[in-house]
Every structure is written in structure tokens, then in C-alpha cells.
Amino acid sequence: MSGFRGKTVIVTGGSGFLGTHLRAKLAKLGVNLINMDIVESPCLDVTKKESFRDMTADLIFHLAGIASPNQCEADPQSATYVNVNGTLNVLEYAARMRIGVVYPSSIQVYGEPDFLPVDENCPLRPIGIYGLTKAICESICSFYREKRGIRVSILRLANAYGPRQRRGFIVPDIITQALTNRSVSILSSKPSRDFVFVDDVIDAFCLAGELLLPEPFNISSGKETTVGELARIICESTQARVSSQEKTVIGPSRLSASNSLARKELGWRPHTRLEDGLRKTILWYSGENAHE
């Protein structure tokens, strides 16, 4: 990944979960980094066109947005405004500067797929606001690529997890309950998801940023894991008990994605087993690696 050295790269949402990991990786690669995140300054708001006025860069990783499906369902207007308008502003800036963009979408764009593991040829039929905003933004990216000549790489991420992920997502919620209460209550054990460790996701970002290939890629483990199995692994590692309320949850009932295309075209593959990734994440949340 030597192609990054000496380049100036904007990471929108660089203070978030994926953003902090990506910035750490890019810094090791010798990149000049610009963290465009409203957490750092109100002047760095991607929903405001003027935020881009004085910036010069060679590449953008557009990570800023409302990433929580629950938050998107609770406030669809804000989710659409932030996720869609922010992406439009990034692409307008990229078109003006003639630079590439890496856009992380989600396998939530597939909704309830016809087959598992789902591949990139499956139609996009999102069933939630979060997946809908991602599908809309994918269409906008494709438009700018075809009509404005921008090189845009779209990565459809499975459920990324790892150290620094905040509460409100399934893995940190279960881990926090287990460490705090030694007991875990999940809404339902039945839904399945595809969990991919953050380090593997960041590797995919970097490969995508170098190649800027036009087709979308699933970035996933390729394995289906139920929430009940996820909770069991975490509880075995923390000596906690688990119970399930068996309530209806937001999102598809089952979801996993093939990563064959990413393996072939990006030269990417996930290296981290779920058990190993969860072990690293539990250590971080327990405070043993909180300094990292």
C-alpha cells in the first residue's frame, strides 16, 4: 500500500469508530491526513458545502453519517439529510478537484435477500431507513462516476465490530452488559448477521483507495452468525449469563454476504476469526487495552 505515501487524504467522520482506525492506518502509511468531523469543529460539517471551500486533497474516504439503524428509524429526516446531503457535497467537491472517493455502503441495501450468502448481483431492496439512505447514496455515486467522471469505489460493509465502537450496536451492547452485569439480555436470538472485524475492514478501505475500481464490493466474513450464537461466544468469554426476549428487531431476519468478488478484484480477504475478534474487543472494553 505504498501508493498512499505523501498524499493528502480527507477522512470525513474521522473521529468515529471506523474513522479513528482508518486514520491510524493511514498515518502509518505516511499520509497527510485531514480529519473532517463535526466533533472536531462545527466548520467541518459535511452537510455544509462551505466546509470544503479551502481544502485540497488527493483522495476522500467518506465515512461521515448516521450509522445506527435504530437512530435512522427514530429520525428518518435527519438520517436522510445527513447521509444523502453529506454524500452529495463530498461528490461535488471530488468532481471539482478531480479526485477519487471511497464510499462505505452496507449489505443492508439488500434487505431480505433471495439467497445467502448474498452477492453483488442481488437487487437492492432495503427494508429500513439506514439501508435506504445507503442505496440512495450508491445511486448518487454511480451518477457522479458516469456523468462527472469521478472514480468512486463502493464497499458494502457487513456488521463491522471491534475496539472503540460505541454503544448502540449489537457487539458493544452485549459486551458492555456482560462486563457490567455478568448477564446479557438480547431482544431476539434468531436474527443472523455477518460480522467482520474492524482491522479487516480498514485493509479493504486502503485497497479500495489505491485501486478505485468502479464495481461495488461486499466486505464481509462470508459467514452467517445468529445473535444468539454471538451472545453465547461473548458470554463464555466473560462468564456471563444470556437470556432472550424473542422480540421483533429492526432489519432483515437473516443476512450474510459473499466476499468472493473482493477476494478476486481487490485482493482482499478477512483474516480475523469471529472468536479472535471478539476476544480482542472484549479486552479493549474491559480496560486492558483502553490506551490503544
Characterise this structure.
- With 292 residues, the chain is an alpha/beta fold.
- It has a domain at 2-165 and 195-220 and 259-271: NAD(P)-binding Rossmann-like Domain (Rossmann fold).
- The protein has 9 helices and 12 strands.
- The strands form 4 sheets. Strands 2-1-3-4-5-10 form a 6-stranded parallel beta sheet, sandwiched between helices. It has a two-stranded parallel sheet with strand order 6-9.
- Helix 3 packs parallel to helix 4 and helix 5 runs parallel beside helix 7 (227-238).
- The radius of gyration is 18 Å and the shape is globular.
- The two termini are 23 Å apart.
- The mean pLDDT is 95.
Pattern of helices and strands: EHEEHHEHEEHEEEHEEHEHH
Strand line-up across the major sheet: 2-1-3-4-5-10
Q: Helix fraction?
A: 40-55%
Helix/strand-derived category reads alpha/beta
User: Compute the gyration radius: what is it?
Assistant: 18 Å
Give the count of helical stretches. 9
CATH homologous superfamily caption of one domain: NAD(P)-binding Rossmann-like Domain
End-to-end distance, in Å? 23 Å
Mean pLDDT: 95
Uncertain runs: none
Query: Might you state the CATH topology name of one domain?
Result: Rossmann fold
- What would CATH call the class of one domain? Alpha Beta
Report the count of strand segments. Answer: 12
Shape: globular
In terms of DSSP E residues, the strand content is 15-25%
Q: Which CATH-level-2 architecture of one domain?
A: 3-Layer(aba) Sandwich
